[in-house]
Amino acid sequence: GENVEQHPSTLSVQEGDSAVIKCTYSDSASNYFPWYKQELGKRPQLIIDIRSNVGEKKDQRIAVTLNKTAKHFSLHITETQPEDSAVYFCAASIRSNDYKLSFGAGTTVTVRA
Amino acid sequence: EAGVTQFPSHSVIEKGQTVTLRCDPISGHDNLYWYRRVMGKEIKFLLHFVKESKQDESGMPNNRFLAERTGGTYSTLKVQPAELEDSGVYFCASSHQAEAFFGQGTRLTVV
Question: Across residues A95-111, what is the average pLDDT?
Answer without folding.
Answer: 87
